[in-house]
């Protein structure tokens, strides 16, 4: 089985002289080099990305994510210079399907290995009769952003008089926090 980084480098080579994307950019649709590019993408589609670190996944993503758009931008020029429009459209559709499949797998693996987190900023005000009023101030992508929002909210009326009521809770995205039912007493 091929290595994803090596496959990505082979795709980049298709932008060099003689490569498929180089030729397509020059309005020359060469079916043999197009098939070679699809075969390289297909090999990339068969790779298990679970063993790759985030930087490697980012590199792979940066190589492939624009390929369908590039093919669409080259299409009219290639057809104008003699490429068969049906053949080009079929090739572009194959590349589009492969890229979408690879991107979905890259993103799915990223979420499985390192679930993303959100930070919820709350403010709880306890009244004299021990009743509580809890407000969700916002949902933030980092603790730093939640702390920044806390500082801003602490200047607002009501909040500035009850600074101890702020708290930030961290949650995993796409994970159920309440896994049991409830009973009414």
Give a verbal description of the structure.
Helix content is 52%, strand content 14%. The chain is α+β, with helices and mostly antiparallel strands and 185 residues long. The protein folds into two domains: 110 residues, no CATH class; 56 residues, no CATH class. α1 runs parallel beside α4.
Class by alpha and beta content: alpha+beta
Q: Report, as a whole number of angstroms, the end-to-end distance.
A: 60 Å
The chain-level mean pLDDT equals 83
Strand count: 3
Quick rundown:
This protein has 185 residues and is an alpha+beta fold.
List keywords for this structure.
185 residues; 2 domains; elongated
How would the blueprint of this fold be written?
Elements: H1 4-13, H2 20-25, H3 31-45, H4 54-64, H5 67-80, H6 85-113, E1 117-126, E2 132-140, H7 143-153, E3 166-172
Antiparallel strand pairs: 1-2, 1-3
Helix pairs in contact: 1-3, 1-4, 3-6, 4-6, 5-6
């Amino acid at each position: 089985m091929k290595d994803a980084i090596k496959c990505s480098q082979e795709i980049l080579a298709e932008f060099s002289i003689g490569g498929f994307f180089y030729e397509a950019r020059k309005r020359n649709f060469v079916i043999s080099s197009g098939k070679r590019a699809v075969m390289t993408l297909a090999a990339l589609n068969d790779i298990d990305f679970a063993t790759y670190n985030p930087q490697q996944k980012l590199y792979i993503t940066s190589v492939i994510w624009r390929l369908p758009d590039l093919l669409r931008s080259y299409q009219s020029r290639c057809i104008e210079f003699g490429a068969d429009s049906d053949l080009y459209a079929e090739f572009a559709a194959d590349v589009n399907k492969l890229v979408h499949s690879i991107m979905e797998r890259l993103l799915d693996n990223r979420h499985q290995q390192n679930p993303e987190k959100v930070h919820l900023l709350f403010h709880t005000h306890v009244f004299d009769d021990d009743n509580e009023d809890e407000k969700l101030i916002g949902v933030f992508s980092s603790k730093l952003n939640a702390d920044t929002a806390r500082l801003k909210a602490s200047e607002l009326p009501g909040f500035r008089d009850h600074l101890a009521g702020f708290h930030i809770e961290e949650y995993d995205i796409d994970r159920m926090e309440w896994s049991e039912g409830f009973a009414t007493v």
